[in-house]
């Protein structure tokens, strides 16, 4: 006997109670569609702990019930640590290798998760970037939180790298008016301002607004380098009824100057048992008359949600993004011995690049009771299309003596001359996917089943240092999925096991102009989470094995290009702890162990990929005084350990480990005088001991210098 009942909307509390119900079942199997909480996937936060997240399921799901490792960097955590980029915000996150480009990391969000390049998202939609340009970047000032899902996410999000995703959640309009102004000054002539204002436009709160803006002007840690940026993010939310919500958002970022960075040969940085004296890391060994890099990006986004009377929810999210970067810079790639002394090989490069993309994701979700089980169902379709153009013009090399007074070259590049080597690429792509998910609750068991089918078409035109255009068309389609099972103990303990797959039809091409083959990923994961109900504690541990085919790696023979290896296998452990030890004393700690190996490759079989440290760990502790003479003071300190990694594909040398110390302090000046209410003074110091280190190398010719000590003072005013 099967009956179907459509019920009137219930309260969120009733939906939660229904979700926990499991101990009894009626004789007939009754299928009941009930109202669920609105599909607000951000979820509540308790201190530094995010209790719910939509990054793993696209529904509002307790972190304990997501059968994969999830970490969330909350707004409160970002306020004490003051990260300069999304990558910097992940310094204390398990599994994440952020800022692997050292002092240049503030301008590129290129995090690796479990040894694999992460896919960056903004409000649940992927940021599709041009492989030949500097990646789009979202200012953390405009973010509410940053969610990290470790492992393949293709079953819901479509084509991706398989290591994991970083979902940046924007600040959105609120129905309570609030305003925030921030001013900061620091090392390397760092000057920055931030503005954030939100509130209702109409008396009935049907129309809300938010305006976020920031400006940055700072020098780089090497001579003659500068970074300037203006970032604007207006948004408006319209609620015509109590069931419909429509948010329109836009961002505009203009960077008229982007600082250069020191990429130098390993032998000249004291690595690889080199007999040569290390170079001065603060000198700029590139052509100072040529450097002039800019980046401009614009986005327009639409987030629509409608709640039906039966409790089901429809979401339609869309974004248009356009990014143009003109990279005009000098680079150092290797050296040559002149009279037994190393002279640098200097080049000038011009790389104009554009990318225009449109993405849309539509899905419907709701809860169904079927006898003793509760099903949270999700069905959706998404698609994206885009056009990418980029070119590379290179002049050089010119030899310069890095130890002499005239260490900077002057190449006088003429890109119309025959010595300029042009390389051009154009791509157009369309991607479509359909997906289904069922989150099944029975007694204390939680079973998550996800499945998806993707179609991808890419037209690729390349001039690889030749007037002849090579035209290719690549068509791919693939099934991907995920299955995860967990058990929820009353104590807040939740062991789980999961298996997930993904595939990624890569954009871009290698030095030879041939389009990349799709990367396929498979992962098995066994883990456990602990979060007592209502507590400010979330502990997680995961053991995993991730295998990939056609892995993309840096091309050691051709500067600025990538190549594809064979198959890679990564085994590892990641541990994450976020807890309030005692009231106002918070701890964030993480540890990651990775055993990475190329299991199939013509040249480097058995070797480890570059920029993948075997061990990394971090711990942050802060305390807020809420009484006595120190009331309003918050002090924090952290230690980051970056383990050794191999510096070239052949594993001929290692990049040494480094231990870095960060400290922070904030004081509520309103404790001194009521006239200063809402004013906060903060001091942040990163790399307190000014440790000189190499962040990573992609080859013996291309290593990245770590970030020096930075000190920043910030004054915030809220009302």
From TrEMBL:
Its main location: membrane. Residues 261-688 form the TonB-dependent receptor-like beta-barrel domain. It is a multi-pass membrane protein. Keywords: Cell outer membrane, Ion transport, Iron, Iron transport, Membrane, Receptor, Signal, TonB box, Transmembrane, Transmembrane beta strand, Transport. InterPro entries: Beta-barrel_TonB, Beta-barrel_TonB_sf, Plug_dom, Plug_dom_sf, TonB-dep_rcpt-like, TonB_sidphr_rcpt. Residues 12-56 are annotated as: Disordered. The keyword ATP-binding does not apply. One of its GO terms (molecular function) is siderophore uptake transmembrane transporter activity. GO terms for biological process: siderophore transport. Residues 63-165 form the TonB-dependent receptor plug domain. It holds the Pfam family Plug. GO terms for cellular component: cell outer membrane. It is found in: Cell outer membrane. Belongs to the TonB-dependent receptor family. NCBIfam families: TonB-siderophor. PANTHER family: FERRICHROME IRON RECEPTOR-RELATED (PTHR32552), FERRICHROME OUTER MEMBRANE TRANSPORTER_PHAGE RECEPTOR (PTHR32552:SF68). This is TonB-dependent siderophore receptor. It comes from Erwinia persicina.
